[in-house]
Design goal:
It is a single chain. By secondary structure, the protein is an all-alpha fold. It contains 7 helices and no strands. α1 (4-16) packs parallel to α7 and α4 (40-71) runs antiparallel to α7. It is elongated, with a radius of gyration of 18 Å. The protein starts with a helix and ends in a 5-residue tail after the last helix. The relative contact order is 0.21.
């Protein structure tokens, strides 16, 4: 698990290098990016990354629920507030990732990557979902700094581990989004 300063440095580095928004050129001219066919291998890689993230984060989900029950007795404690924020954010992240998986699965099942209108929709939806998830990483990072706990506290370790896994997933998804088209 990365210590907090290294985690913050990674988030800042990702934002500074533009990987949080690798589609800036496409945003300037969205028609240019979507006039091409979708790269099926990129869709599969995105789906694989999300599924791998689910597998890696499943134990953390159970641990979040377990710790929430343990700290629920004192709802004013910093640990409970931080866990509650993590739990609420995790619910939003999970819903967004489920939407992304559904979108990718339907696109792969449909298989028509030459339909420009469908490509525009698919690209736009994927980009919006990933942008939302990037914002969730930002909020998690900001809240982590606001509600600092000792690095040995189990809540802090769980929180930082979750943040590292989500940041890693988004780093990969942002890179793949830049190669969305053939």
């Amino acid at each position: 698990m990365l210590p907090l300063p290294r985690l913050v440095a990674i988030v800042v580095l990702v934002a500074a290098t533009g990987l949080v928004s690798p589609v800036a050129a496409a945003a300037e001219d969205p028609a240019a990016a979507t006039d091409q066919a979708i790269d099926e291998a990129t869709l599969v890689a995105m789906m694989d990354d999300v599924v791998r993230y689910y597998d890696e984060s499943r134990p953390a989900e159970g641990r979040i629920l377990e710790l929430l029950q343990a700290y629920e007795k004192n709802k004013d404690s910093l640990e409970y507030k931080k866990l509650r924020f993590l739990f609420d954010t995790h619910q939003k992240v999970t819903t967004s990732l489920n939407n992304l998986i559904d979108l990718l699965y339907i696109s792969l099942k449909h298989g028509n990557y030459e339909d420009k209108e469908l490509n525009n929709y698919l690209y736009s939806r994927c980009k919006n979902i990933i942008t939302f998830l990037n914002n969730m990483v930002y909020f998690l990072t900001a809240r982590n700094q606001e509600m600092a706990l000792g690095s040995s506290v189990d809540v802090q370790q769980l929180y930082e581990g979750y943040l590292v896994r989500l940041t890693t997933l988004l780093y990969d998804l942002n890179k793949l989004l830049a190669h969305f088209h053939k």
